[in-house]
Prior knowledge:
- Strand 6, helix 5 and strand 7 form a beta-alpha-beta unit.
- The chain folds into 2 domains: about 5-100 and about 245-365, Periplasmic binding protein-like II (D-Maltodextrin-Binding Protein, domain 2, 3-Layer(aba) Sandwich), CATH 3.40.190.10; about 105-175 and about 190-245, Periplasmic binding protein-like II (D-Maltodextrin-Binding Protein, domain 2, 3-Layer(aba) Sandwich).
- Helix 2 (about 35-45) runs antiparallel to helix 9 and helix 9 (about 265-285) packs across helix 14.
- The protein has a 5-stranded mixed beta sheet, sandwiched between helices.
- Helices cover about 35% and strands about 15% of the residues.
- By secondary structure, the chain is an alpha/beta fold.
Amino acid sequence: MPSQERKANTVPLDWKEVWYTNCPMVSANNVDQELGWCREEYKKIGVEYDYFRHAEGNNWYPHYIHNLDNLIRFGGLYPPIHVNADIRRTVLLGATWVNEGGCMAVRASDNLFQMKDLKGKKIGLTKSQNTIKNDWWRIQEHMGIENMLMLNDMTMDDVEIVEFPYPDDWYDDPQMLTPINNPSETWLKRDHKHDYAFRPLEKALLAGTVDAIYTQSKVFQHIQEATGQLAMIEDLTRYPDWRVQVANTPAVITCTEVMAKEHPELVVAYMKAMIKVGRWSNDHKHAAAAILNRQTFYLDAEDTYEGIKNVDMVPSLSAQNMQTIKIGKDFMFKHGYIENDFDVDEWSAPEFLEKAAAEVLKEEWERRSWSKLPEGGGLDAQNVRLG
Length: 387
């Protein structure tokens, strides 16, 4: 179906409902979809909280173009940058940084061991023909390839880039439009860790159509290496420079400007849950890894743990997170993946995270102080000595 004939369908707006969407990557929201703590926060204020594909009237496009006013998204970096630049104003609420960078994969049977061995060789690059949504796969590949070449004193001129256009039209497949209560249900119908639909260039590499392809570090990498057919001759995560680790990461939280301005309490409720789930995940990394393993592309639960053990699962708008977001945005603007530039600092709204953190601390203090103060207490308790 041509892109112009496709429709981004949504249900009627109801501010007593908040929809969420996430990408199959490392984030507190992906842990919470199994814990249900975010749903509890919304129940406290009388609001229904559900996965956006739970409603038959919502197709897949809101995940990419954020055309639901009451949607909160926690996922890959490039689509929300595209939305805020060219589609509609959104608000940046938090980010989770995972060093994933990218690898250069080659056939294990080939005599290729270093990036310089790829001079004059063919490297694959996908190209989505779907003009409704952002081509995040291609941006990730493009950025990773450029960084790997640059770090080895090479440029795109030293290799032959082979493009692979594809329809990218599964969003309208009736089989994919069955209502889903939980994102994990998507994978019940397919073995996503071994599904080539998520590694589209791998077959072209194995067939000899190209000599190398970009793949994500740790995510995908270890599954691909385990086949014995592929080897990684470069890995950006091995470099100390965090500036080359941006690869549709960090995962960011965004909501519409409409939600932030007209219903800030809905945003704060979400951020409270993300702080609570993030803290739990930091304290129980193996448990969080077991949950994330159901949705992500690490080799197994232990491999997932190795991938997240140094990740702070509590979202933040730290100086480093903000800089990585700027790096991703600047790359997209420089290479024409977005038409309009914008200020990332102005995009961010740290006040929601700050208010949520204050409320979480207040609740925690009230729980802990209840057994120690004569009549219970809150943060406004005065002239009472504890201990």
